[in-house]
Amino acid sequence: MFEKVLIANRGEVALRIHRACRELGIHTVAVHSTADADAMHVRLADEAVCIGPPPATDSYLNIPAILSAAEITNADAIHPGYGFLSENARFAEIVGEHGITFIGPTPEHIRMMGDKIAAKEAAKSLGIPCVPGSDGSVGNDTDAKRVAKEIGFPVLIKATAGGGGRGMKVANSEAELSEALSMARSEAGKAFGNDQVYMEKYLVTPRHIEVQVLGDSQGHVIHLGERDCSLQRRHQKILEETPSPALNAGDRDKIGDIVVRGLSKLGYLGAGTVEFLYENGKFYFIEMNTRVQVEHPITEAVTGIDIVREQIKIAAGAPLSYEQKDVTFHGHAIECRINAEDPKTFRASPGRVTDYHPPGGLGVRVDSALYAGYSVPPYYDSLIAKLIVHGPTRNECLMRLRRALEEFVIGGIDTTIDLHRKLVSNVDFVNGAYDVHWLERSMGSWR
Ligand code: ADP
Predict the structure, then answer these.
(1) Is 261 part of the annotated catalytic residue set?
(2) What is the pLDDT of residues 374-415, one digit of tens each?
(3) Closest CA to ligand 1's atom 12
């Protein structure tokens, strides 16, 4: 097992990794920008190294500074968390070249899944069903028209290097195609430095259902069930739940088997998530994330499996602690992502937190790096807390969630707590009757 792990991240996920390390008896090294000198992850870690000024490109994405921090502290592994460098294949490679273990999949698999066209090709070859679309990238308007004729409108133009819902444009007819193509291309170029795009059939009422997997260096792959992440705004997840209200046990087993068989063939190492759209009883692969996800705690709640602990053990060469038959699902879990944002305009709301009172009690978990007196810096993602609630049934989980949201106090800044309070009382949500477009379609009428 490792003696010391450097956590190349900040905020709640840095704490999440620190906690897993501590329970395994591993020392931790925090890295931080000058803006985060007073951050909770810095306070909790055994050691801390400042790696640069506030902008992420100069600090949390600064590979030479992070490697120097690992070398001067003698860290034997680096956990990248999510975001920042977690899906940067070159970073994983460089870490390895320095004799340090990267806690995550192989650089080859990160690279393959980071390119959405290569990922879809891989999925197809592994027997995983995909959304109908272009074979490879779409070059020009003529190309786009030909593909649209084959798959039918509406179509979605997506960035090959995409992430975070950026670089996606819908075209409902041929008349909209050319503009959507150039807009997607320019957004992708600006966001990812790569303007390559591809096309998919735009599904009108899908749910977003993803399967959590773990693979070890002995070649075992297991799945930990699904998460329904259909509540989204601008293709970004707001609330997630498991099990999905839309799946039956047969569909769940079917998709779990398909994913496990596919990733076993690949020899996948570490934690990963295979994302699907689900419509009319059919699953369509959209992408794979080769890292731990924001919403992993709901899976931990229903399976009792510590996903970050498994990631660390797998990276240290240990076999998985569970076989598929050991994985059982208990009750229902929901996560609310709480952002420092105005709940009406969604404008970022950084600033000083004057009061902080997280909810507690049976079945309630709060993952957050906040404390009273802390100032949320304006430079990074606006996610400041995750409220995860577990109950024996969906109904009891919802009752507990409403109670927990009532208790939650974050003073001094605007947060999306109020949006969640309204959302969890909405009749469509209570009935589980929602798809990926529902939140944006309906929000105006109930907020
Ligand atoms: P990103 O990597 O940017 O998050 P994804 O491919 O994971 O992009 O898609 C994010 C979300 O965008 C999905 O959960 C879904 O809501 C929407 N989306 C993606 N592809 C389609 C599609 N073909 N039809 C309808 N909605 C889609």
Answers:
(1) no
(2) 999 999 999 999 999 999 999 999 999 999 999 999 999 999
(3) 235
